[in-house]
Amino acid sequence: MNMMLRRLKNIISENAITIILNTHRTLPDNQKDSLLLKNLIKEAETRLLADMDKREAESLIQRLRDLEETIDHRQNLESLILFVNENTAEYVRLPIAVEDRVIIDKTFATRDLIRSMHMEASYLVLVLSQQKARLIKASNDKVIQEFGDPFPIENTQMVNRAELSNASRLTNLISEFYNQVDKEVNHLRKENQLPVLICSETSQYHEYLKVADEKNSIYDQCLNGNHDTAKAHHIVTEAWEIVKKYVIEKNNARKAELQKAISSGKFLSDTNEIWQGIQQGSVQTIFIEEGNFQPAKWIDGHITYVSPEMRNGKGVVDDVYDELIEANLRQGGDTVFLPKGELKDFNGFGAVTRY
User: Fold this and answer.
1) Predicted TM-score (pTM) of this structure
2) I want to staple 48 with a disulfide (CB 3.0 to 4.6 A). Which of 53, 57, 97, 156 is the partner?
3) Side by side, which strands form the sheet with 79-84?
4) Does residue 133 contact residue 127 with C-beta atoms inside 8 Å?
5) How many CB atoms lie within 10 A of CB 139?
6) Is the separation of the CB atoms in 136 and 158 below 8 Å?
7) Tens digit of pLDDT per residue, the chain (355 long)?
8) How many CB atoms lie within 10 A of CB 337?
9) Treating both helix axes as pointing N-terminal to C-terminal, what angle do 111-118 and 320-330 enclose, rounded to 10 degrees?
10) Which of 84, 12, 72 is nearest to 41 (CA)?
């Protein structure tokens, strides 16, 4: 997802269409998802035909419909996002709830990608024993996928009884196996540097750490026990109880950072001041409440809010907060999403400056 975000946030075009919708994992609920998507595509069609040349609009509409045909709703998670312009047509499934909406702008709306990466806890669970290794990707308490080839990895060297009776040789065989597993885990982590929770006997957890190349990516607590044959969702349910503690600690640290910035005068709440700070590279972190959207116009470089009813008007940006989040990301800043009410004194939006 990191690579997708990096690619999409740098695309600028006259009509970048983003369709965002909540979906369902299971029957019969996911049978309704295709109808919701059709309705949102119809909304996009109406807006495109009203605002641009008919032939160009129909070309984009066809691209939307072609992309729609490739989506298997039986594979849905909690939400689905489509990104379409004259050169791009792709979608992503996310394990988070969203607000159903259609955005047509000069850039794609990537806020929910960022929120999924930073707000939801995505991690890997390495189910490890001396005989076998499985790898599961999880988000909070949900299984996203259990990896196939080369997983599960079997320790094929643990078959020679003579070698197994030699304690020193046995230790070496286990270390070699764990080293092989570690290299495969890190190969899969290249595109998305997710942290790893090890699920194993505590003694084996410490043995694995001895050979691990990227120890900093591994949680300093393991899920104790042998889970070789356990169902993935049972493992992740237990794993989440450990990971959740780290998430709470991280969120509390970010909130403390916000409070410190407010008391030291390094906090901005005026949208135009934040925009100027982003352009100057002085904004470090944007804090925004979940579900906070604001349509606006840029008039002579100045942001002017408009009512939600004017969202589809000519020259109106569907969500100016999304634009600021993306601009700050390009400047090396980051974003923290907070529950509703956490920034009620600042209209749900603010920024911490670097200096």
Assistant:
1) 0.71
2) 57
3) 89-94, 79-84, 16-22, 101-105
4) yes
5) 20
6) no
7) 677 888 898 899 989 999 999 999 889 999 999 999 999 999 999 999 998 999 999 999 999 999 999 999 999 989 999 999 999 999 999 988 899 999 999 999 999 998 887 666 889 999 999 999 999 999 889 898 999 999 999 998 765 555 556 667 778 889 999 999 999 999 999 877 899 999 999 999 999 999 999 999 999 999 999 999 999 999 999 999 999 999 889 888 988 999 999 999 999 999 999 999 999 999 999 999 988 999 999 999 899 999 988 877 778 898 999 999 989 998 999 999 888 888 888 989 999 999 9
8) 24
9) 60
10) 84
Length of the chain: 355
Q: Is 4 left (phi over 0), alpha (psi -120 to 50) or beta?
A: alpha
- Spatial separation of the C-alpha atoms in residues 349 and 336, rounded to whole Å: 10
Under a CB-based contact definition with an 8 Å cutoff, are residues 191 and 117 in contact? no
Q: Distance between CA 215 and CA 153 in Å, rounded?
A: 20
